[in-house]
Amino acid sequence: MAHRIAFLGFVALAVCASLSLAAEPASLQDFCVADASGNTLMNGMACKNPAMVQASDFAFSGLHIPGNTSDAMGFRVTLVSMTQIPGLNTLGICLHQVDYAPWGIVPLHTHPRAIEILTVIEGSLEVGFVTSNPGNRHITKILKKGDVFVFPVGQNPGVITIANTVFGSKPDISTDLLAKAFQVDKSAVWQLQAKF
Questions:
Q1: What are the boundaries of the signal sequence (predicted)?
Q2: Is 109 assigned a ligand-binding role in the annotation?
């Protein structure tokens, strides 16, 4: 009798566990256009009533306008997210245009929750990333018009110590680029690279 109760308890536990782990990976609705006037926040904004959705909720105009690249880094990002296209709400995706002045750079950064796909529309651009510790491999390429490059989301779940990654990558990240990114003299970059 004790074995039968234990067995039934195990079956009940297994059924409960399978029910609690069940999930639907697909969206449960066609779309969730952001309702800027809504008060409920979730993974984005509250959803607009689907009967009120318009084509304009899925469109944006303005990427044909060049960004002002006269700042110290020589770049400008034009972000297109759910604020600009309410139809992107809850999709976990956005788009941006980056304009560069000659020799302009985007500050060194990571994307812990997103993959970035970059396409060069005009000119050429040196791009790259550094893998996580202990390798710290600097993977870089010069892209030309029409080329595409993928930046993986945060690489693997290992530790990425910034100093080792930036100043100890193999091959080295360009001294010119690091000096401009950190707004320091090249000699400071050489000193740091020598330590790693």
A1: 1-22
A2: yes
